[in-house]
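Why predict the complex rather than its parts? Because the way molecules touch one another can change local conformation, and only a joint prediction can capture that. The input here totals 235 residues.
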Amino acid sequence: GAVVSQHPSWVICKSGTSVKIECRSLDFHATTMFWYRQFPKQSLMLMATSNEGSKATYEQGVEKDKFLINHASLTLSTLTVTSAHPEDSSFYICSATRTGSSNQPQHFGDGTRLSIL
Amino acid sequence: AQTVTQSQPEMSVQEAETVTLSCTYDTSENNYYLFWYKQPPSRQMILVIRQEAYKQQNATENRFSVNFQKAAKSFSLKISDSQLGDTAMYFCAFMNRVPGGATNKLIFGTGTLLAVQP
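Output of the joint prediction:
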């Protein structure tokens, strides 16, 4: 159990377009999900904490209007990169923890490779 | 603020040998969790092992074990009988224990790239 699905796994798009990435908990409810960004050969950088039914909490330095997060249900959080530019190209990973199982390990999606031309 | 430090950017080990990856952290909290995650070339994040700070006994998962030294704020990972499939980036991570059952964020180290040589 505890499977997290992330879609798409790879997306290439033109500069200026908006891209939506989905993170789904397939077999459990997740009140809280997390979005990370990872540059090549670097660590995961937390971008924001996604909370079901409320606004996301963004880390310092992350543009809220650039990276829109919506967590409308207990199994789905979306990250939309608005008006994407080449510098937004990166690997984005989400994670989720089962609701009610406090302080349990986060389960990660397989990531999305975003390439902006 | 909590920080996690991995001082070994890269390491190499021969197949079947043992290797230890180091990790230190800084926190003023007393209740927390520590994790080791593995990220192979596929880039999937895989939980290797987990340690609860209030437990003195070191966690063990098959060939993987940790040396948790709470006073020294050290959390090293030992991989025994290394296998080619162990080749990956290894991240040490810290998470505060939150009262009330909420989920807290992970703080990652910079990672250690481990190469297992045949």
